[in-house]
Amino acid sequence: MDFSSFLTSLATSFIIFVVLVLVFTWLSRKHSNDVIYYPNRILKGLDAWEGGRRTRNPFAWIGEALRSTEEDIISMAGVDTAVYFVFLSSVSEDFYSYVVFVNGLWFYHWQLFFSCKLKTTTFVEFSHAKSPRLWAFLVATYWVSFVAYFILWKAYKHSSKLRASALAEPKLKPEQFSVLVRDIPSVPHGQTRKEQVDSYFKELHPETFYKSMVITDNRKVNKIWEELEGYRKKLARAEAVFEASKTIEKPDGTKPTTRTGCLGLLGRKVDTIDYCNEKIKELGMKLDAEQMITIKERQLDSALVFFNKKTAAASASQSIHAQNVDTWTVMEAPEPRQLIWSNLSIKFYERQIRKYVIYVIVFLAIVFYMIPITFISAFTTLDNLKKLLPFSKPIVEKDAVKTVLEAYLPQIALIVFLALLPMFLMFLSKTEGIVSESHAVRAASGKYFYFIVFNVFLGVTVGGTLFSSLKTIEKNPNQIVPMLGRNLPKNATFFLTYVALRFFVGYGLELSRLVPLIIYHLKKMFMCKTENEVREAWAPGDLGFATRVPNDMLIITIVLCYSVIAPMIIPFGVIYFGLGWLVLRNQALKVYVPSYESYGRMWPHMHTRILAALVLYQITMIGYFSVKEFYYTPFLLPLPILSLFFAYVCNKHFYLGFRFTPLEVACKSSKEIPNMESVFQAYIPPSLSMDKFEDADQFEDAQSQTS
Amino acid sequence: MDFSSFLTSLATSFIIFVVLVLVFTWLSRKHSNDVIYYPNRILKGLDAWEGGRRTRNPFAWIGEALRSTEEDIISMAGVDTAVYFVFLSSVSEDFYSYVVFVNGLWFYHWQLFFSCKLKTTTFVEFSHAKSPRLWAFLVATYWVSFVAYFILWKAYKHSSKLRASALAEPKLKPEQFSVLVRDIPSVPHGQTRKEQVDSYFKELHPETFYKSMVITDNRKVNKIWEELEGYRKKLARAEAVFEASKTIEKPDGTKPTTRTGCLGLLGRKVDTIDYCNEKIKELGMKLDAEQMITIKERQLDSALVFFNKKTAAASASQSIHAQNVDTWTVMEAPEPRQLIWSNLSIKFYERQIRKYVIYVIVFLAIVFYMIPITFISAFTTLDNLKKLLPFSKPIVEKDAVKTVLEAYLPQIALIVFLALLPMFLMFLSKTEGIVSESHAVRAASGKYFYFIVFNVFLGVTVGGTLFSSLKTIEKNPNQIVPMLGRNLPKNATFFLTYVALRFFVGYGLELSRLVPLIIYHLKKMFMCKTENEVREAWAPGDLGFATRVPNDMLIITIVLCYSVIAPMIIPFGVIYFGLGWLVLRNQALKVYVPSYESYGRMWPHMHTRILAALVLYQITMIGYFSVKEFYYTPFLLPLPILSLFFAYVCNKHFYLGFRFTPLEVACKSSKEIPNMESVFQAYIPPSLSMDKFEDADQFEDAQSQTS
């Protein structure tokens, strides 16, 4: 890719971004789009617009985002999101501190650049072999690393504080009073599962045990409940349609009809409202019966145990209960909304086996996915394209087409390619047997990170020249580090464009929300009949950390690894994270609704991966300098070791405070015993909820038993 | 080494053993030796001899050892010793099960052996290359592994049961009510350390916190106390001497005198009794003052915290207390007698650094110790000796000398060599900052195990031919496994003699206790004047697991690795562990007094190392078969993986139950609150003990504060 196509790419991206921002400014002022641009405020019962609609400056959102405090974020979007902003701001701060330092070193080079003497691919690369100035770059590598340590430490400390103060809040959080017990041994003769659990915990925690809830196999009852809900929706819809058909000409309206067969297309034609009412009644009775059966007979070997004190629950969740450690395993209970019920019944060793099997699958996926990516990056040079697809020659040789293709083809191929993956990884993570949504998100994010770094970063870097250098690796496996150092500079422009594309187009689309807007309007126009259906059509979803975080990590890896070789990438990095901070601040305050709260447990995960990127950077630097035959390259060797040591200290100092709830933190909030019944009720899944029955007491007895 | 020297070695060892047993039978019947042969019974206040002295069969000890139950062992020698016997009996059981199976396969070979057709070094080695009978040996390898899994699992289960029932005993154990807190942050302004600890724990454990004891720097007070004790002993001794000098001729006796200068050799001559009395008075006052200062001013950042419930202490010791995990670190308190006070003040990161530094030192010691061992095993062939020390030629060429030298020289060199090491390793382990004696023993034992396996087993096996094969390794590092397989058979006779030497001479000496007996009688005759001094002279010590366990592990490694190649070693293994069981059973019941009780925490340590030996065996087998160019060698590859999997399952199922006290176990014993003051008192070190003061209350207040 030459210099003009690089500029074209940048310019196009920037224009798209400007257009998207203008579109956002225009569309977000329309009242009918409020549910797309302000759903979080609406769901929280706030006014969509703080000021009046007319008086507002079109760019007011920027000011609002900048003025918003951490407390605003926590109250609007939770601690996880606040921690994510700690991450964004520290990374951009981090990169910003490099701009001054590293670009200062490049002064001479910039001069050349601005005097247009350098327009070839080398403009981003420092090519003075054995230059004495390499010393300065060695110092820069140290500077980059130490600033990273300093900022990471500060960020970890801050996240830890955020987590602790959120956990110590006096607001009732059911998960703080509960622990999850798995792998309960088989029921002794003459006892029910319930009695077994109750007597076990009552003996070990006589003062603090409140109640237990045995986990049941809800698949069957969930199915009936979903069917019932389906008919309820259908009924509401039919009634809405019926109301709408009552025009002045036809005051009685037409009753909607449906067919009873497959998908409502075949079978007998019936009156929808009557049919639904009948079905609802029938299913309601079936549900009642099924609920009874589920509660009594489908008990699994897991339970939720409730304590009347936070410290008791925190300390119980950290203690070994049984002598055979693979029975009565205890852990902190996740929030009710993020508990994955279907995974609770998986047995101890099955979980372990699943975990390792999935690690192997992910490993294979990472390794063998490299093959198609390598092909793509080898294909998507225009010369190759012309050679392999000769019929395309007349098209791609037109200047305009050529420039655009050269600028975008590789990146778009990559992005599309990667869009298919997250769902697969999320599925794998849930299959591991993880019990909480947030943990599954972290697991998927971790897998995605490895995938993306190995395949996109290393794949493109090494793979772009893989066909030529495959033989070198085969002959000499310890040539990987120097090869990395050799190949890195060649791909600098590719990654520069990649980063630019991500922040201009990516954040432009994020801000303008064009896709959800279009989907919403289409749905509203053609499908939604009831208020509930409309509400579902604009449900904003959450920030989607499972893909957002690893993508950010990829950018960090790229920017770090190129920071010394091609320092032009650092401002790009600053823009990526700075713009990201601004746009996502707006989205977090006004759009997204978090679907769970894990009190910042994402941070250690991100911290480790930033450090991994840093180590990768330090290793590629060693490779880069040794390729330059720089005599003092060994001076860089302490850096990766230092990074590992830093990781170790951070881990020892902070990590367990994220893994568990320290007693100190659990103890801080009010010491009164809360309304324990509401804690218990919070965990009853909707399909088993009895609140519609008047004689709920009889089930209460089967489901739980007050101590 | 040829066959005749092997037989000579065996015969000599056996004769030594018989002589030692006879000596034991003769000496142990004398009343004056009771304190050497029955000290444990005497210290426990039991009659040394259960039956009358005269009526006893000289071999009654064998019957007594065989009849003794596990409960006897636990009551006489503690759970740790009982677990050690579980280890001995399972290993001998394990090996016994091989005898039948593997030796059956060798039937043909034995025939040859007994018909005296095989008298060369190869008699122990199966040398039919590519024989179809190798199949049978592959099956034998599987058999050996699976029997080992089965027996190890049973033993782990049994040890776990022993541990649980010992922990659940109603007898008061102060350590079950205490936790050790380290890394307490600096004292906030206006509080004492004591108040800080008390208020912190009282807040987190309001119902169960009883009291705390701040750890002090006792070096100075210990020194004074030791000096004081020294003078007390001297006084007692002088009085005894004075009493003894009152003969009928000289009814007033002569007062013993001493010199006040260096070592009692220089300086003014004074009356010892008066001098000591004066010194004791002086030091007593100094001690009082120092105790006050220590308690008030030399407080460190550690404390012992006492709870009034076992479950509270167990659960507190497993919970993260502070948000910064490297402060307020909490662990189970060790027994008062095994608490290493001087290590308590070492800071968190210093401990980590010390640990890794010591790992590096041990690693270096293991690797570079190999060099002398290699030299020894290369030197100690007679041919080398003759070549290198030509003057020794006339001596070593005499037949008798030659045979003895050939038989013993290498083994004795090795044994002497290894005797120097344990103290060094124990010193290193204590330097790590470990707080309990039992943990330090385990750490030293682990280091010794690695040392002994790498240096004795691998060193002799590979090193015996190292000079010839060093070049092969250098050229081809992945040739290590086949080389092991190739070299193993060559050293079979060496290890056969080594094992025989260990059990005949080792256990013979163990049983006869010749060395302690001689030392005791010498001391009694020339040095001991008072009852206390005599008591110190016969103090039996404990079983010394730090060296005993790794030596047993070495034997297991040797026997396993040779079990298929040279199955004659298996009966030797059975004898080693069988005889060991018998002899040590006697010693545990009558001689040794355990110096600590860790409730079987040695078992997981031994279990892991037995498995490591098993994996080493499986790998050498792969090497051995592949050297034989046996086509189906890959069939052995699943075995090491299976072993790792077995280790993983055992670890998950049992390990944490040994690492911590499970709540279930802590909860089992009586629920009454014990005499907490005695728990507290148990932890006061003798140098700080105030019981001789009448106004102890005033110190009580400084040292602790009742909640």
UniProtKB/TrEMBL annotation, chains A, B:
Q: GO CC: one term?
A: plasma membrane
Specify the domain of life of the species encoding this protein.
Eukaryota
Q: Where is the CSC1/OSCA1-like 7TM region domain?
A: 354-625
Family to which this protein belongs: Belongs to the CSC1 (TC 1.A.17) family.
Q: Does the keyword ATP-binding apply?
A: no
Matching entries from Pfam families are given as: PHM7_cyt, RSN1_7TM, RSN1_TM
* Residues in CSC1/OSCA1-like N-terminal transmembrane domain copies: 5-154
List GO molecular-function terms, semicolon-separated. calcium-activated cation channel activity
Q: Where in the cell is it found?
A: Membrane
Instruction: Identify the main location.
Output: membrane
Q: Which residues form the CSC1/OSCA1-like cytosolic domain?
A: 176-343
Q: What protein name does the entry list?
A: CSC1-like protein ERD4
The way this protein sits in the membrane is described as: Multi-pass membrane protein
Which keywords, in A-to-Z order, does the entry hold?
Ion channel, Ion transport, Membrane, Transmembrane, Transmembrane helix, Transport
Q: Where, by residue number, does the polypeptide cross the bilayer?
A: 6-27, 95-114, 134-153, 356-379, 408-428, 448-467, 553-584, 631-650
Q: Which organism is it from?
A: Cinnamomum micranthum f. kanehirae
Has UniProt tagged this entry with the keyword Ion transport? yes
Q: Which residues form a coiled coil?
A: none
